[in-house]
Amino acid sequence: MEWTGRRKLMGGIPRKMVFMAVGGFAKAVANLLNTTSVHNADTLIHLVRSRPSGVPLITVSNHKSTLDDPVMWGFPGFPSFDTNLARWVLAAEDICFKNPLLSYFFRLGKCIPITRGAGIYQEHMNEALECLSNGAWLHTFPEGKVLQEDAPIRRLKWGTASLIVRSPITPIVLPIVHQGLEKVMPENYWFGKRPLFPLCNKRINIVVGEPIEFDLPTMRQMAISMSRNLHFPGKGWPSISRYGLDEAAQRSTSQYDTTHCFGTLKGRVL
Q1: What whole-number distance in Å separates Cα of residue 237 and Cα of residue 65?
Q2: Superkingdom of this entry's organism (predicted)?
Q3: Residue 48 CA to its chain's centroid (Å)
Q4: Continuous segment of H or E residues that includes residue 227
Q5: Quick one: which of 66, 126, 120, 75 has its CA closest to 94?
Q6: Alpha carbon of 29 to those of 42, 72, 178, 213: distances in Å?
Q7: What pTM does this model have?
Q8: Measured between alpha carbons, how far is 100 from 102 in angstroms, rounded to an integer?
Q9: Which residues of 14-25 are buried (b: 16+ CB within 10 A; e: fewer)?
């Protein structure tokens, strides 16, 4: 279904129809059925609309429910219906791409299938890198799964960090933390099932952090230096030869990147 993700498919009309429908749904859930407050929304809107030409944007957030995307983008003032400005997003293959119909729909919605447990070098990660090389906006959930317990952000996966390191153009990274969507779409609502429709009269809080611009050359040198003292079983990662990053160096860089992405929001109470 990769062909359905092309911008010019049937003049872009199917994609526009999907974004009109999904954008309307997101705004209804966020603003009509529930109450949404956003801290620092202007920073997100500015980076989506007006970042430097050709510079990619990666937003990262915690994962509270299956409705996080698209409802996160339904708040007032956000360009939810603009297919050119809309995010690409890494989406779980086992949930969003179960059959041809779902695959067609989510592909039109600018979703990239990711297989859980298949590692950072799986096939569609190259598609995500291509989006970044074109200066697009990519959203990821580094936790890798929904976590609705009242607990700190779980250990972050390395895939997002690997995209930052391997992107041909260093992306701007924007961390986002949200709370409340776990009450709009709880995982265990009725006999261990989700509700058929989003619940209402809930409060959704979204905190947008400040953009992070990574000094990748310095970080690569630090990773190479740190990795000399690391000893662990290899996973067979290919070396990034043009930067001199073997597997150990890549793992050192990834650990730092994923932790730092949420560092600016640590301690903030939602």
Answers
A1: 31
A2: Eukaryota
A3: 14
A4: helix 216-227
A5: 66
A6: 21, 10, 15, 33
A7: 0.83
A8: 6
A9: ebeebbeebbeb
Domain boundaries, the chain: 10-214
Q: Which CATH number is associated with domain 10-214? A: 3.40.1130.10
86 by Cβ neighbours in 10 Å (0-12 / 13-18 / 19+) ranks as buried
Q: Are strands 203-208 and 35-39 parallel, antiparallel or unpaired?
A: parallel
* Whole-number Å distance between alpha carbons of 93 and 113: 5
Check: CB of residue 28 under 8 Å from CB of residue 144. Answer: no
- Write out the E strands in 95-252: 111-114, 137-140, 172-179, 203-208, 212-213
Q: What is the pLDDT of residue 214?
A: 82
pLDDT tens-digit readout, 42-99: 999 999 999 999 999 999 999 999 999 999 999 999 999 999 999 999 999 989 999 9
Q: What amino acid is encoded at 206 in this protein?
A: I
Q: Per residue in 215-239, pLDDT tens?
A: 777 776 776 666 666 655 666 566 5
- Are the C-beta atoms of residues 173 and 211 closer than 8 Å to each other? yes
Among 70, 225, 248, 222, smallest CA distance to 158 is for: 248
Q: How many CB atoms lie within 10 A of CB 39?
A: 14
Q: Write the Ramachandran bin of 95: left for phi over 0, alpha for psi from -120 to 50, otherwise beta.
A: alpha
